[in-house]
Design a protein that fits this description.
Layout lengths: L3 E8 L9 E8 L4 E5 L6 H9 L6 E6 L2 E2 L10 E4 L11 H11 L4 H15 L14 H14 L4 E5 L7 H17 L3 E6 L2 H7 L2 E6 L2 E6 L1 H6 L4 H6 L6 E10 L2 E6 L2 E4 L2 H6 L5 E8 L4 E3 L9 E11 L3 E8 L2 E8 L9 E6 L5 E4 L8
Parallel strand pairs: 3-8, 3-9, 6-7, 7-8
Antiparallel strand pairs: 1-2, 1-4, 4-5, 9-10, 11-12, 11-14, 12-13, 14-20, 15-19, 16-17, 16-19, 17-18
Helix pairs in contact: 2-3, 2-4, 3-4
């Protein structure tokens, strides 16, 4: 196992107007399961390829296990990589696929058989050893690819969207399997995905990237509850956070934020942010579960009238899309909430969870 450190890593490609990865500082702790997530083209795969040695940084330093790796060949980094397409030899059985790398590394024959049996038992693929990849399901192929990586005994694992070829049910199962494997074999792991569900359910910490830049590095809980900017807030969470324009106005009684058809007196941490501000344009954010049917129990909570446009029953909960003037909101309501398209409802907002962002920069204000 090994700690991974990236210091000021930048990657420039010829003919490109901007860096694929720009000035990235990152530390992955020994034994940590770190997930790098972001939209297509954000630089996450390029970062993984620089760790693997397939790409050389234009600037900066890559360290693995305390050693600088910028000029070290991929085969000499003692890393194991699992790809999206499994990369199994189609003409070999599962056992021979697992044994191939060990033979290349001149592992003693007696050890090869023993280690393959141990890994096959852990991954529950013992009965598949005599089959070829074409005879396996997607999940079984993925287990074989993971087994081959485990048999390398690497100092770190690099996984490049390994579940994206699987159906939804199998992805959910493999997420559990990967976490179980990591618990049994806690090697430093960097996992790249575009799927925020994988990031939030699997990671010890998450790196969220956009445009080649690190936006936030945090635990899944902190990423969701304390996003540093509007992009992070909108990327994490399903359904997405509701973002709409607002304005903070200072009067004699203190700052107030107005949004939609409501207003709310800011206090606590929110109010302290705007003590010296007379007027400021902001973006207001509420996650779907923070908007609910008004009860009237707390008269200080802002309330708006809305027209229901769509009701999506999901068994344990109901997603409701409602319109307030020109803006559309998504709410998470209890199951069988009794609403239908066309209904007029009163919605109240959980202001304790309200997020305010600077309209121009997107940076969170409170």
């Amino acid at each position: 196992m090994a700690k991974i450190v990236l210091q000021g890593v930048t990657k420039l490609f010829k003919g490109k107007n901007s860096a694929a990865v720009y000035d990235l500082d990152l530390e992955v702790e020994d034994g940590e399961f770190l997930v790098v997530v972001g939209p297509s083209g954000c630089g996450k795969t390029t970062t993984l390829r620089m760790l693997a040695g397939f790409e050389t940084p234009s600037r900066g330093v890559v360290q693995i296990g305390g050693k600088t790796m910028n000029d070290v060949m991929p085969k000499d980094r003692n890393l194991a990589m699992v790809f999206q397409n499994y990369a199994l030899f189609p003409h070999m059985t599962v056992e021979k696929n697992l044994a191939f790398g060990m033979k290349v590394r001149r592992t003693p024959k007696a050890s090869i058989g023993r280690e393959i049996r141990e890994i096959a038992e852990m991954l529950e693929i013992s009965e598949l050893l005599g089959r070829k990849p074409a005879e396996l399901s997607g999940g079984e192929r993925q287990r074989v690819a993971l087994g081959r990586a485990l048999l390398r005994r690497p100092q770190a694992f690099l996984l490049d969207e390994p579940l994206s070829n699987l159906d939804a049910a199998l992805r959910a199962q493999m997420r559990i399997e990967l976490k179980r494997i990591h618990a049994q074999y806690p090697v430093t792991t960097v996992y790249v995905t575009h799927d925020q569900v994988e990031a939030m359910t699997m990671a010890d910490r998450v790196v969220l990237m956009q445009g080649g830049r690190l936006q936030q590095l945090a635990t899944p809980e902190m990423l969701y509850d304390q996003p540093v900017n509007a992009f992070v807030a909108s990327f994490v969470g399903s359904p997405k956070i509701n973002l709409f324009p607002g304005r903070v106005v200072q009067d004699g009684s203190g700052p107030k934020v107005s949004f939609l058809t409501a207003s709310y007196a800011l206090n606590g941490s929110h109010g302290a942010t705007f003590d010296a501000v007379s007027t400021r344009e902001v973006t207001v954010g509420f996650r779907p579960e923070e908007i609910r049917l008004a009860t009237g129990n707390d008269p200080e909570l802002p309330v708006v009238k809305a027209t229901v446009e769509l009701v999506e029953p999901l068994g344990s909960e109901t997603h409701v899309v409602a319109r307030v003037g020109e803006l559309v909101l998504t709410c998470k309501l209890p199951a069988r909430c009794g609403l239908s398209a066309g209904d007029t409802v009163s919605l109240e907002f959980d202001t304790a969870q309200m997020k305010l962002f600077d309209t121009e920069s997107g940076i969170r204000l409170g």
